[in-house]
């Protein structure tokens, strides 16, 4: 058994759809990226469902706290630098390790998870899906290393040539990372929000807004321009403020289209629906009428939306935009949406039925109905699963539904050994 490779494979599969949870504050996060390595190690080490839950909750606490306090993207550091230590902390909590072991594991995970944000710029490659899984693999190895008595670069955040001094705000900078006391409840997981649509979270409200506005536009060919007034983050990461011409390229990768709010808004406006496969298909992206509409869209940074993006008050925090659609006859159609419909403050907040419907939509036509039901039942009973029962959280797909194998060009590990 090799937990680190299971973490890698399943972490990549989870991230490929970009459809799990999100947390946005000083930086970005997808806290559920911690679950694949935790599950893999729990299965290998014979842990219970309650142990796994403890690890998941611990990883969320660390991840959310770091994202609230330390901005990575300002320094062009990719956000897996917060994910790695969260994964290591969760593994340590799940395995019941000593504080010193967890400390050393976290330091090692931070040290090896510092990477640049180029993975989310320009032509975005498949590495965007691999990066969180790679972090999980590194976290598993870091914890194993610490359990064997090895130490790590220390202090990893405050050292003379370490993270704060060389990658963040400099040697004199200070950050306050708030974690709960021993007797305080662990609530960070409740602060995160899910995705109803398979797209970058900052596009969720804009997909819903496109659905709302499309009925007010009798002829989309008459649209002269669309301006999306939104936050600094949305404008610079998935909007025209990124300066990435690939965000307007019909032949761009799925990963790039997922980070183009111009493409996403155009397709949502045309289709009135969003699908995790069909909405990104090459034939969908290359429709001439879509390309024409897509290239009429630009984003504009609006200080008010940036302020609301960072507002510490959950009742005011917003990840939406105001959209102005200028028509050929001089008419302007305006719409605004603060949060996605699935958000806790949205029109249709996600609750258990929403999560179950989302799950069933993802497995439809891929997994046998009986297997889909079995897996869902195991998830519901997670706190009661005993050691040796966590294999029930592995879903089985019939071989004939996996599709033909893709190309397997030779690499180093496929080379034969020569005398």
Automatic annotation (TrEMBL):
Enzyme Commission number(s) of this protein: 4.2.1.79
Domain MmgE/PrpD C-terminal intervals: 197-377
Record Pfam families: MmgE_PrpD_C, MmgE_PrpD_N
Alphabetical keyword list: Lyase
Gene Ontology MF, one: 2-methylcitrate dehydratase activity
Enzyme class: lyase
InterPro entries: MmgE/PrpD_sf, MmgE/PrpD_sf_1, MmgE/PrpD_sf_2, MmgE_PrpD, MmgE_PrpD_C, MmgE_PrpD_N
Domain MmgE/PrpD N-terminal positions: 2-174
Coiled coil region boundaries: none
Ranges annotated as spanning the membrane: none
Keyword Lyase appears in the UniProt entry: yes
UniProt record similarity statement: Belongs to the PrpD family.
Protein name: 2-methylcitrate dehydratase
């Amino acid at each position: 058994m090799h937990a680190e490779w299971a973490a890698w494979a399943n972490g990549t599969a989870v991230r490929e759809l970009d459809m799990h949870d999100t947390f946005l504050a000083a930086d970005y996060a997808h806290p559920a990226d911690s679950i694949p390595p935790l599950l893999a190690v729990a299965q290998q080490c014979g842990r219970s469902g309650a142990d796994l839950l403890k690890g998941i909750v611990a990883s969320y606490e660390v991840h959310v706290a770091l994202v609230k306090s330390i901005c990575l993207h300002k320094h062009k550091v990719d956000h897996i630098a917060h994910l790695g230590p969260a994964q290591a902390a969760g593994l340590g909590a799940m395995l019941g390790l000593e504080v010193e072991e967890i400390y050393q594991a976290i330091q090692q995970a931070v040290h090896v998870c510092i990477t640049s944000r180029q993975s989310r710029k320009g032509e975005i490659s498949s590495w965007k899906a691999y990066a969180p899984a790679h972090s999980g693999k590194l976290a598993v190895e870091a914890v194993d290393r610490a359990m064997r008595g090895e130490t790590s670069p220390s202090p990893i955040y405050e050292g003379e040539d370490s993270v704060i001094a060389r990658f963040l705000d400099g040697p004199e900078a200070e950050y306050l990372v708030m974690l709960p006391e021993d007797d305080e409840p662990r609530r960070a997981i409740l602060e995160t929000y899910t995705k109803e649509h398979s797209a970058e979270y900052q596009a969720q409200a804009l997909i819903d807004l496109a659905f709302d506005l499309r009925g007010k536009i009798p002829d989309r060919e008459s649209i002269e321009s669309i301006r999306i007034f939104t936050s600094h983050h949305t404008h610079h990461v998935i909007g025209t403020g990124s300066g990435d011409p690939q965000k307007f390229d019909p032949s761009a990768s799925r990963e790039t289209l997922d980070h183009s709010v111009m493409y996403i808004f155009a397709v949502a406006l045309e289709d009135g629906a969003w699908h995790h496969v069909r909405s990104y298909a090459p034939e969908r992206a290359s429709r001439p009428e879509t390309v024409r509409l897509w290239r009429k869209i630009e984003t504009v940074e609006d200080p008010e939306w940036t302020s609301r993006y960072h507002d510490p008050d959950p009742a005011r925090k917003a990840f939406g935009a105001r959209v102005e659609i200028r028509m050929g006859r001089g008419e302007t159609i305006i719409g605004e949406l603060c949060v996605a419909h699935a958000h806790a403050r949205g029109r249709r907040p996600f609750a258990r039925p929403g999560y179950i419907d989302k799950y069933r939509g993802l497995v439809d036509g891929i997994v046998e109905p009986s297997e889909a039901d079995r897996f869902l039942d195991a998830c519901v009973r997670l706190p009661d699963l005993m050691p040796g029962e966590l294999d029930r959280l592995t879903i089985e797909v019939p071989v004939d539904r996996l599709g033909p194998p893709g190309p397997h060009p030779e690499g180093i590990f496929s080379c034969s050994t020569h005398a």
